[in-house]
Every structure is written in C-alpha cells, then in structure tokens.
User: What shape does this take?
Amino acid sequence: MTEKGQRSQRGFALVMVLVALALLAVLVGAIVAGGRGEARLAANLRAAAVAEAAADGAVQEAAFHLLAAGPAHWPADGAVRRIVVGGVPIALRVTSEAGKVNPNLVSPALMAALMQAVGADSGRAGAIASAIRAWRTPDAADAGPYVAAGRDYGPPGAKLQSLDELGLIVGMTPALLERLLPHLSLARDRPPDPTAADAVVMRALAAIAGPSAAAAPAPGGSMELSVVRVVAVALGPGRARFVRDAVVRLAPGRPDAPLSIMTWDAPPLDAQDWLPGASGQL
Assistant: This one.
C-alpha cells in the first residue's frame, strides 16, 4: 500500500473515531438529560406528596383544637391561622356550617329568598326553587320542563348528592350557582342557625320570617354536634401547593367517635382563591 493510501486510511479511521465520539457524547447527554428530568419529576412528586400530607395533618390539628377546651380551643370564626406541620407552612381557616342552607331540606320559600338575596329576580328565583324541590322529591318529580329544555335527563326524585348537582336543575345557571355555593351545605340536617348565618342568609331569613324571627336561634340551636369546614393550604418544598377542603362533624360528648369526616376534597384552585393572603410565602 502506498504512503498516500495509508494516510487516507488513517484519515478515514480518525473521522470514524470522531463520529463515534460525537454519537457517544450525544447518547451520554441524552441519558444525563433524561436522568435530570426523571429526578425533577421525582422531586416534584415528592414535594406534592409532602404538601398533601401536611395539609391533611393540618385538618387533623384543627379538629384537635376545635374539640379542645381552654386556651387550646379554636373557635370556628373564619380567621386565617398559620401553623407549621412537618416543617411545611400552612394557612388554614375554620368556618361553621351551622348558618348555611341545606338545599335538600330547605323550603321553596327560603330557597327563593336566598336566590333573590344573591341577585336573582323573584320570578326566576321562585321557578328554580320549585324545580329544586321537584328534583329531590319522588312524588313531585316532573321530567316535562327538562324535555322542553332539550335535556336528556329528568329529576331523579332523590336528595342531592353534591352541590354541583344543582347545576343540572332546569333554570339554574353557572353564574347563579357560583353566587349561591358559599351559602349552601349538604352537611347540615337542621335549618340554618341565624346566630351563625352570614349576611346573605340573614337577608333571606328576614325576607320570609321578619327581622325578629331571623335573629332568633334555630330550634335545637345548642347542639352537641357541630359541623365545620376546614380549608388548609400547604406550601411544600419547591413551592408545591396543595389545598385540602374538608367538612367535619364534631361530637365532643362522644369520646369513642369525637369527629367524622363528611367531605374530603382537593380543589384544583390556587391558594389565593381560598384564603386571603395565603399565596406566595405562607
């Protein structure tokens, strides 16, 4: 082989080595990048799990303080409290459900008054209130209005299983339901307690019973059982955020079962939509 041929072979071999090294570098880079991505994903999942566990722990701690006596007791006053659970900062709020209206029990008159209190006109409010009663009452269920409205379903003649189900009732709109939701609860098995009601529910009570009746405590107002809503916002590692929204029934006089969880939700909303000032650093 001539010297020129040998130089050509050596040059070709060098090119092949350089190509192989380049391919190897690309492969190593892809492996490293994939490993980093997997590590980031694992870290994010861990941070989310830590935030969720901390928020759940905060609900349990709130229940402990609600049941406690003396200085350790927390009233269900709606105040935003800041605690730390497992090193995770938490903002939480405890509110009473006692002053809310249960659409499974409410009279059409009070339901109509509540809708008017949030801005619905009287005719529309009355029609929807009657539709709510028909939805939950077996002998009043009527599919006619739903057929006329082009719906492929009718009232089940059974109690509402969730407040979102109200959105299926003929005449109800998303905007009206959004205004109603803060004043409703399925957890209460009694009429709203005026001493715990907000201004909107108070206006509705006064509209059907007069101001003096609305100011009086509801029958059985000194209840052993109480129902509260606990919203806990956790800011975990890497700014992972988790919101736990729970409704809890408390029974201080029952040491064997002092509390029971009625709802246990994780709403996909930012913290600032739930607790004022809970966004950013808690």
